[in-house]
Design a protein that fits this description.
alpha+beta; two-stranded parallel sheet; 3 helices
Length: about 60
C-alpha cells in the first residue's frame, strides 16, 4: 500500500542486530514523507538504552 503520511525512521549506526544499510537506508527510499534520523553510536536497543533522546525526538516529530 501507498504510505502518504509523515514517517519517522530512527536507527542507531551501531546496531549489531539489524544493520542500517539493510533496513533504515532502504526504508527511507520508499517513503515520500519519510524523515531519517541516524543516531551515532546507538545500539539496536536504543529505545531502552537511550530513552531520553529517543522519546524527545519522537515527541518533537509528533508535535510537528
Amino acid at each position: 500500500k501507498k504510505i502518504d503520511v509523515p514517517v519517522l525512521v530512527m536507527h542507531g549506526d551501531d546496531d549489531q542486530i539489524v544493520p542500517i544499510a539493510d533496513s533504515a537506508l532502504l526504508a527511507i527510499k520508499l517513503l515520500k514523507k519519510g524523515e531519517l534520523k541516524i543516531y551515532k553510536g546507538f545500539p539496536h536497543g536504543m529505545a531502552t538504552t537511550q530513552a531520553d533522546v529517543i522519546n524527545a525526538d519522537l515527541l518533537a516529530f509528533f508535535k510537528a
